[in-house]
Specification:
Elements lengths: L3 E7 L3 H11 L5 E8 L6 H14 L7 E3 L13 H4 L21 H11 L5 E5 L4 H9 L9 E5 L15 H5 L1 H8 L5 E4 L1 H4 L6 H8 L4 H21 L9 H8 L4 E6 L1 E3 L10 E3 L11 E7 L1 H12 L3
Parallel strand pairs: 1-2, 1-4, 2-3, 4-5, 5-6, 6-10
Antiparallel strand pairs: 7-10, 8-9
Helix pairs in contact: 1-2, 1-10, 1-11, 4-5, 5-7, 9-10
The chain binds alpha-D-ribofuranose and calcium ion.
The site of alpha-D-ribofuranose has 15 residues, from α1 and α6.
């Protein structure tokens, strides 16, 4: 089986970092042709440094890492150090990377890689604000007819929001870019809070990472131990939601997830609901479906996959 070609667009963040490691630990199934970084959880310089750190930890200094947008399309940047710590990957306990960023802006890299790939060959996996993807679509609209799929973490419906009562962080940070993406016509698979809040880092799962006696195992354990604190405190749950690895796990084993193809629209005007993903789950409108929105996950199977793959690094 030929490995599926993907670009990971990301704002590491501990959960992005684990998602990157999961992808790099799965070369038979996934060919990561590039990683593109965006400002989000922490500013761009740190998300880029963190992506380089994860490539180095996985022994994949061959992966081009292109830095992208330093801020959202229209709104001011909002970051999330309160969740991820000042570095964005607090708990990882890793040195500064020696690997350097690859020349060329992320938006140009996304366009060039998409236009040079065969039609339907390339999938983009956004794990942060959609600024780079939105700008690429505005700069070169033809990428929309060439991409195979966008599999993204973002949004929420019955689960509401986590940055505001209405909006999930990735979409909230750049709702205008999200609006461009969800109007693009590209097949979209969406991992909202409704599904990621069922992928909780329960103590028995965190213990399994602690038992992986490798640099990657220790880094993942340290990051999960730090990252879950905010959500445990807020939601009173036994663990934190492991958002971004759901995107990569879906590519590796789609049977772990269940959802529905429905219309999704993005709020870009009201400040009260800015960045809300308005998901027409019950068919209340005549809008055309534009995304497969996931709601169910086999969380035990998800963590089995994650532990097994991280142990390979
Ligand atoms: O709301 C969760 C999302 O926002 C995750 O992708 C997390 O890394 C942050 O980017
Ligand atoms: Ca992220």
């Amino acid at each position: 089986m030929t490995a599926r070609k993907i670009i990971i667009d990301t704002d590491p963040g501990q959960d992005d970092a684990v998602a990157i490691l999961l992808a790099l630990a799965s070369p038979e199934e996934l060919d990561v042709v590039a990683i593109t970084t965006v400002a989000g959880n922490v500013p761009l310089a740190l998300t880029t440094r963190n992506a380089l750190t994860m490539c180095e930890l996985a022994g994949r200094t061959d992966i081009p890492v292109h830095a992208g947008s330093i801020r959202p399309m229209v709104r001011d940047l909002v970051t999330a150090e309160y969740v991820h710590g000042k570095s964005g990957i607090d708990g990882a306990g890793l040195p500064e990377p020696t690997m350097v960023v690859t020349e060329g802006h992320a938006v140009d890299a996304i366009i060039e890689l998409t236009m040079s790939a065969d039609v339907g060959e390339l999938t983009i996996c956004p794990l942060g604000p959609l600024t780079n993807i939105g700008l690429a679509l505005l700069r070169e609209p033809r990428i929309a007819e060439r991409l195979r799929e966008i599999v993204l973490m973002g949004g929420g419906f019955f689960a509401g929001g986590n940055r505001t009562p209405a909006a999930e962080f990735n979409i909230y940070v750049d709702p205008h870019a999200a609006d461009v993406v969800f109007h693009s016509g590209i097949p979209i698979t969406m991992m909202p809070l409704d599904v990621t809040h069922k992928a909780l880092t329960l103590p028995e799962y965190v213990a399994r990472f602690a038992a992986i006696d490798t640099p990657a195992g220790r880094a993942v354990h340290g990051m999960l131990d730090f990252f879950e604190r905010f959500d445990i405190e807020r939601y009173g749950t036994e663990g934190g939601p492991l958002h971004d690895p759901c995107v990569i796990a879906y590519l590796l084993d789609p049977g772990l997830f269940g959802g529905k193809h429905v219309p999704v629209r993005i709020e870009t005007t009201s400040e009260l609901t800015m960045g809300m993903t308005v998901v027409d789950w019950w068919g209340a409108t005549d809008d055309d479906p534009n995304a497969t929105v996931m709601q169910e996950i086999d969380s035990a199977g998800f963590f089995d996959l994650l532990v097994e793959r991280i142990a390979r690094i």
